[in-house]
Amino acid sequence: MMSLPFFGIFLALALVMAGRRTASIVVFGASFVMLLVLFKLHATDPLNIAL
């Protein structure tokens, strides 16, 4: 699951190299939003610690 934003960033870089700037910006934005959503899910997950 965590690898999805990084695949998106790789795709955005590949699109830049192919000369498709607008598509690259859209893919990068979607990857960044996905990264923020995954961080929110991770940061608010309760810890299961039995002390």
TrEMBL record:
Highest taxon of source: Bacteria
Entries under InterPro entries matching the protein: DUF5993
Protein's name according to its UniProt entry: Uncharacterized protein
Pfam families recorded: DUF5993
